[in-house]
C-alpha cells in the first residue's frame, strides 16, 4: 500500500508544468515592446501651420506648445493660461534638459501671442526655440 501511495505522489510531481520559462519569455517580450515603442508627444490640438520653403524637421522636440486660431495656448493636451506658460516650460525642461521648445502657432493666431510664448521659454532658461511650419 505504501508503495502505491508513493507511486501516486511521484506521478503528481511529474504532471506539474513549470511556468517560470514562459514568464521569463513574456517579461522579455514586454521589455522589448516598451523599448521599441515610439512615444509621440503632442501639444494637444491640431494647428493649421503656415508654409515655409526653408522648413526643416526638428529632432528631439520634447516641449511642444500650440497656439490655436483663437490665441489659446495648449501644452500637453490642456489649455494653459498665458501667465503660467513659463512655469510649465520650466517643469518640462527640468524633466528633459536636452529637449527643445517647438511652438506650433496657427497661421491665423496673433504674432503677439507667439512672442509672449517665446519670451516665456527664454525666461524659463530654454534658448533653443523653434517655430513649426509645413514644408512648401
TrEMBL record:
Gene3D superfamilies per UniProt: 3.30.420.270
Entry keywords, A to Z: Cell membrane, Membrane, Protein transport, Transmembrane, Transmembrane helix, Transport
Protein's name according to its UniProt entry: Biopolymer transporter ExbD
Protein's UniProt keywords contain Protein biosynthesis: no
Membrane topology per record: Single-pass membrane protein; Single-pass type II membrane protein
Organism superkingdom: Bacteria
Location(s), subcellular: Cell membrane
Family that this chain belongs to: Belongs to the ExbD/TolR family.
Transmembrane segments: 20-40
InterPro entries (alphabetical): ExbD
Amino acid at each position: 500500500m505504501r508503495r502505491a501511495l508513493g507511486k501516486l505522489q511521484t506521478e503528481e510531481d511529474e504532471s506539474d508544468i513549470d511556468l517560470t520559462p514562459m514568464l521569463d519569455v513574456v517579461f522579455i517580450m514586454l521589455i522589448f515592446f516598451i523599448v521599441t515603442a515610439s512615444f509621440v508627444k503632442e501639444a494637444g490640438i491640431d494647428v493649421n501651420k503656415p508654409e515655409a520653403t526653408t522648413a526643416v524637421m526638428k529632432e528631439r522636440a520634447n516641449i511642444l506648445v500650440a497656439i490655436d486660431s483663437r490665441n489659446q495656448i495648449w501644452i500637453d493636451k490642456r489649455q494653459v493660461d498665458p501667465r503660467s506658460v513659463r512655469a510649465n516650460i520650466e517643469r518640462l525642461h527640468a524633466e528633459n534638459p536636452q529637449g527643445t521648445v517647438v511652438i506650433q502657432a496657427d497661421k491665423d493666431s496673433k504674432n503677439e501671442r507667439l512672442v509672449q510664448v517665446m519670451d516665456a521659454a527664454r525666461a524659463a532658461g530654454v534658448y533653443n526655440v523653434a517655430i513649426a511650419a509645413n514644408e512648401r
